[in-house]
Amino acid sequence: MKRLLPALALAASLAAWGQSTEIANPDPKVEARLKAIAHELRCLVCQNQTIADSDAPLAVDLRQQVRGMIREGRSDEEIRGYMVDRYGDFVLYKPPFNAVTAVLWVGPGLLIVGAFAAFFVLLRRRRDLPAAAPAPDPARRREIEALLASEDDAKPGR
Amino acid sequence: MKALKYIVPLGLFAVLCVFLAVGLTRDPRQVPSPFIGKPAPGFTLAKLHEPEATFSPEQMKGKVWLLNVWASWCVSCRVEHPVLNDMSRKGLVPIVGLNYKDQRADATKWLKQHGDPYQLSVWDIDGKVGIDYGVYGAPETFVIDKQGVIRYKQIGPITPEVLEKTLLPLLAKLNA
User: Fold this and answer.
1) Does some domain include residue B103?
2) Cβ–Cβ of A44/B136 closer than 8 Å?
3) Rounded distance, CA A45 to CA A96, Å?
């Protein structure tokens, strides 16, 4: 079984690769551009896959659409624009920076900066604390030493 | 100061809970359509029942109408079909069917079986018009106003509740 698993995985990925040549006589240039664009577009019915990875009928249709647009000589930008006009920013795996997505883009950075700021404030506070307990005054010190010495004398006979 | 140590994490936890709770109530499959308020894309397609005749949305100018995406293979379409039949019987609004990626014979047979609420259906065999309308599953329904602008998109079946709470008020407003 242990040997079978990688073989199965390989077979599956080969099958998926075979999928990407779903038309007769594919033009390698078109297919390469298709592959690059399809990897940025979300499959709407299987939302955690790109349309490059998915075998859903809609993904196949969208690939076909992109292929057609590449053949018409449209730029990548135009093709992405076409998809966004129809399915919204959600179709892009890398959403654009705008008012709606600002929190998404800036949020994690702000969190990290905030966490570091809090960390350094904490460190500084620690450093300003007295380094160690204050030394006892001489009289008290003698008392302590006497006590310690007496304990040494009265060693329990174990 | 001591209390703060407990209140801050508790507060953060509460905020997180609110976000997660709101997230639970939303359906990630409902992608808001960027088409709302934009003109419905034009197309010319053969009619389902009369292959030699064509239809395009301009023919509906001046009317409020529904474009309903359906197919004989679509399971949820069966759920909404009685509602559409009912709407058609009452003459609430003209409904145009976009038969999406379906075989003509299957589609006509399906309509015979379940009733035909459509003023007419057009036949989109390769789903090109569907893609142009941003369709990603059937059923989907577009409400298009007199000027040919898309005013609403229902993703998934039209239930009696959707009809009552969303469509009827919207239709009344658009027809006013």
Assistant:
1) yes
2) yes
3) 21
Q: Residue B75: which domain range?
A: 37-175
Q: Provide the number of structural domains found in chain B.
A: 1
Q: Which of B166, B149, B148 is nearest to B157 (CA)?
A: B166
Provide, as residue numbers in chain A, all residues whose Cβ is less than 8 Å from the Cβ of B124.
none
Comparing CB atoms, the residue among B28, B34, B101 nearest residue A88 is: B34
Beta strands in chain B (DSSP E): 45-46, 54-55, 65-70, 95-100, 120-124, 140-144, 150-155
Cβ of A107 under 8 Å from any chain B Cβ?
Answer: no
- A32, two tokens: 């390469």
- Contact list in B for residue A62 (CB cut-off 8 A) is 131
**Tens of pLDDT, residues A27-49:** 888 888 998 899 999 888 877 88
Give me the amino acid identity at A146. A
Question: pTM of whole model > 0.80?
Answer: no
Tens digit of each residue's pLDDT (9 = 90 or more) over A68-85: 999 999 999 999 999 988
B133 is written with which tokens? 């309308």
